[in-house]
Amino acid sequence: MQNFTFINPTRIIFGKAVLAKLGPEAAKAGQKALLVYGRGSIKKNGVYDVLTGALEKEGITVTEHHGVKPNPVLSHVRSGIRKARENSCDLIVAAGGGSVIDEAKAIAAGVKYDGDVWDFFCGKAAIREALPIFTALTLPATGSEMNSGCVVTNEATAQKFSAQGPALFPRVSALDPETTMTLPRTQIANGAVDAIAHIIEGYFTTKDADAAVTDEIVHALARSVIDSTGRILKDRADYNARASMMWSATLALNGLATCGYGGMTFINHAIEHSLSALYDIAHGAGLALVIPAWFKHHLQTSGPARLEKFGAEVFGTSTAEEAIKAFEDFFRKTGAPVRLSEAAIPAEDIPRIAENAMGLIRLWGMKHEQPEIEKILGLAK
Amino acid sequence: MQNFTFINPTRIIFGKAVLAKLGPEAAKAGQKALLVYGRGSIKKNGVYDVLTGALEKEGITVTEHHGVKPNPVLSHVRSGIRKARENSCDLIVAAGGGSVIDEAKAIAAGVKYDGDVWDFFCGKAAIREALPIFTALTLPATGSEMNSGCVVTNEATAQKFSAQGPALFPRVSALDPETTMTLPRTQIANGAVDAIAHIIEGYFTTKDADAAVTDEIVHALARSVIDSTGRILKDRADYNARASMMWSATLALNGLATCGYGGMTFINHAIEHSLSALYDIAHGAGLALVIPAWFKHHLQTSGPARLEKFGAEVFGTSTAEEAIKAFEDFFRKTGAPVRLSEAAIPAEDIPRIAENAMGLIRLWGMKHEQPEIEKILGLAK
Q1: Are residues A191 and A144 in the same domain?
Q2: What is the CATH number of the domain that holds A112?
Q3: φ/ψ of residue A341, rounded to 5
Q4: What is the pLDDT of residues A346-379, one digit of tens each?
């Protein structure tokens, strides 16, 4: 078990009808909110009314910044920063899924920085401060509601890069599982795959496989995501399944699932970011393409031990090959694509995808070369 | 799954040779430390030298307050408060196990309060502020290093009561598993039982048994404590087992193991506090006496469902009775007593023990009467 540091100061308020509690919480931080949201689903499911009502009740002025798209783009972040400055916003409220929260974080950091916000993503500057961030999560998937990272796509350069810093931990995140009841099936699928991806990256890439307690937590969260997703697909109105899924996805990337692992990388994410940057496919869908292929490569290069252990504990399988198939079956069951062709990505593009992925692989200091990435992508054909 | 709030701002620094990092961390909070410790084991295992060296390197003046005993007592807390005031201490450093950290927390709150510190324990006052607390944990057991509670015994009234408040979260806790290598076997046993006790209280007393993700986490932590304790008893020098045990015990009572449970109580703890208050036995030993007896009572009053589920997931047992026996076997294997007679507590004392327990049961607002507590204790004969 390797040395580690764990810190996570985000306050979680979880359950039915909790969103209005963000009003008094936000009022402790400021009086002028930038309300960041997507393309209007929060107006249909009532989140918008509850949230703006709760903020206004506290005398908080709300400036709206909507239209955040999945795989949030740099140009929209920049316009959010301008809007926050013009309106002297002193806090940010994000209402939506991981894309909305990530864009809100980028804006929060960008407002407090004299240079270009992209500097944080390409490693030119570190995030030293940010506006206080409050979130109302409506899509369990990325874990952004309880971590200090964010991912933005620079659409001019086709780079999907990440930035992080302790200032980006949301002060308070409100998670109401009932807001997820109306999610379309593709978003249920993408969220499940994304959560699984976060749970497995450390487990399978660690050079130190003797962190028994973290292994147990990884198995526990994986079982919970898989079980609750199955229950949701059977009965969309199953509140307890929605709640278990929501809290599992948050815990999947709040730091808990990697304590004591060493030398781990986010290789599946690095490759996926290239797919999203080039084809604008959902992050979860991209991960469902990459993960089984990467597992096949992992089996060839690192042996069967971790796949056997994970498979036995989570899927009840006996061999590494069966464990990989069980992952594919789960992804297929949710409706996610597991081959490039199923996402209409031509195999001829593999060199171009790998070349794009290398940008992030180098930036993150990972030891992979382009031929290896091409080989992994070849296993997704 | 019930609504819940989760917040835990303590920074954990975990691993080999991490204790010296408390120096710079403490220096951010103040310049005059009260160093709280027990009866000298930290002078034998090197913790004292590392810690005082690290504090002095930062120019921090150290006032010592040692002699904390297991089941820390109010009189010693009061003398610590006087010492901290006399020396104008602006931070507290606790080096030891849960008793030391609990006493340090009580002192930290007491220094900032004009009344008597016992007011916090008997419900007369709420903790509004406290000196910043830093801990170097040497005994995995109570979880105090990452939560906001503390337990102190008023030796004049034989009351072992608890107090809590957000101000009691340690700012930083340093956990070096190597400091646990020299623990005597009884402390290994007591720590394992205490951690298990924290893991199970919510799971078995919740009125809402559909918080699937928290059930999974409870199973995961229980398996980890049981497995790592077995490894430690086989090989005292097994670092990875020590590390897994240490992090598991911290996670057992940091809030994670009860998210979404409803109507839960700390009944086993309430009964045990009476045993410690009256006989000054170790908290872990007292819990090993109470838990199997309470399980037998739980089985009679609430049915077998939770015991069957827990037993199947953690021990591989089939029935509730087998699960209870597996708990007893585990406690026995560690060397903990599982019957009153094994701890030299006379069965004739049961009414007196139950009467004492009722003080805490009423204070905590639990719905139990003395005959029920006597019946539970009778099952421990």
Answers
A1: no
A2: 3.40.50.1970
A3: -65, -30
A4: 999 999 999 999 999 999 999 999 999 999 999 9
Q: How far apart are CA A166 and CA A179, in angstroms?
A: 28
Q: Is residue B110 part of a domain?
A: yes
Q: Is B62 exposed, middle or buried (0-12, 13-18, 19+ CB in 10 A)?
A: middle
Q: Would you give the DSSP letter of residue A230?
A: H
* Chain A residues contacting B via beta carbons under 8 Å: 1-16, 18, 177, 210-214, 216-217, 219-221, 223-224, 227-228, 239-241, 243-244, 247-248, 251, 256, 259-260
The reported pLDDT for the residue numbered B208 is: 84
Q: Is B194:B287 a contact under the CB 8 Å cutoff?
A: yes
Total structural domains in chain B? 2
Cβ of B243 and A260 within 8 Å?
yes
CA distance A213 to B242: 11
For residue A331, which of A268, A285, A298, A271 has the smallest C-alpha distance? Answer: A285
Question: Do B224 and A213 lie within an 8 Å CB cutoff?
Answer: yes
Cα distances from A42 to residues A36, A39, A181, in angstroms, run 11, 8, 12
In the 8-state DSSP scheme, what is residue A313? I
A to B CB pairs, distance under 8 Å: 122
H or E segment and range at residue A65: strand A61-65
E strand or H helix at A10: strand A4-14
Beta carbons of A8 and B8 less than 8 Å apart: yes
What is the reported pTM?
0.97
What is the rounded radius of gyration, in angstroms, for the C-alpha atoms of chain A?
Answer: 20
Helix axes B212-234 and A212-234, enclosed angle (nearest 10): 160
Name the domain boundary from B131, B149, B178.
B178
Domain span at residue B134?
Answer: 11-178
CA–CA separation, B247 and B146 (whole Å): 10
Last residue of a domain, one of B149, B178, B207: B178
Tell me the nearest-neighbour CA distance from B168 into chain A, angstroms: 14
User: Does one domain contain both B196 and B83?
Assistant: no
B210 contacts in A (CB within 8 Å)?
A: 240
Q: Is A9 helix (H, G, I), strand (E, B) or coil?
A: strand
Q: Are strands A4-14 and B4-14 parallel, antiparallel or unpaired?
A: antiparallel
Average pLDDT, chain B: 96
Rounded to 10 deg, the angle between the A370-378 and A350-363 helix axes is 130
Domain check: are B152 and B261 in the same one? no
- B295 and B314 belong to one structural domain: yes
In this predicted structure, the answer to whether residue A209 has a pLDDT above a threshold of 90 is no
Q: Would you call B3 and A11 a contact, using CB atoms and an 8 Å cutoff?
A: no
Mean pLDDT of the region A28-36 = 98
Query: If we measure between CA atoms, which residue out of A167, A192, A179, A180 comes closest to residue A282?
Result: A192
Chain B: closest CA distance from residue A11 (Å) = 5
* Same domain, residue pair B173 and B283: no
Tell me whether residue A291 is exposed, middle or buried, using C-beta atoms within 10 angstroms of its C-beta: 0 to 12, 13 to 18, 19 or more: buried
Residue B213: list chain A partners with CB under 8 A: 220-221, 224, 228, 244, 247-248, 251
Which residues from chain A sit within 8 angstroms of residue B8, using beta carbons?
Answer: 8
User: Is the same domain home to A87 and A201?
Assistant: no
- The three-class DSSP label of residue A339 is coil
- DSSP H/E element including A94: strand A91-96
| Interface predicted TM-score of the whole assembly (ipTM), two decimals | 0.96
Give the one of A11, A220, A260 whose C-beta lies nearest to B217's C-beta.
A220
Is B2 a member of any domain? no
Please name the residue of chain B whose CA is at the shortest distance from the CA of residue A176. B3
Are B211 and B358 in a shared domain?
yes
Looking at the domain assignment, is residue B4 inside a domain? no
Q: Do A308 and A210 sit in the same domain of this protein?
A: yes
